[in-house]
């Protein structure tokens, strides 16, 4: 997905990923930061956190752009359930969604420093200063929506990206695939 988003952004800016640059797809995603620092000919790398911030702190690179900012809101995380499960267990789905919304509410109402403190136990390999830098960057980029509603614009963007990458042969109707009533109820 990161590469599809990256190529989508390049294409939207008049750059043909196949003709205008060389993308090395042979590197395991977890090893791209190390490969970037070890290859003098590499000009750019696409990194998730904490690798991007680690490269900056080491003086080995700079974060020059955010795929999330440049692509628009791409729903990287969504949850799927069979229609039968939704119909038979609406209270389970609502409870799950409401719990996730409480997390989104927390992010909206607390500082990056407070958020970093809370999430630190989940990232024992990353120091608090780095976590705070990452959360601050996400905060400033408006990475986190204030609700969990999977908007139609985001759904269409996701299909545009998949189609552009040659991974989607047929588009699907938003109303046919996305149920938003649980997320809308959780916001109330």
TrEMBL record:
Phosphoprotein keyword on record: no
Gene3D superfamilies registered for this protein in UniProt: Periplasmic binding protein-like II
Family: Belongs to the bacterial solute-binding protein SsuA/TauA family.
Keywords: Signal
Domain of life: Bacteria
First-listed, main subcellular location of the protein, grouped into a coarse class: periplasm
Location(s) in or outside the cell: Periplasm
Pfam family name, one: NMT1_2
Gene Ontology CC: periplasmic space
Protein name: ABC transporter substrate-binding protein
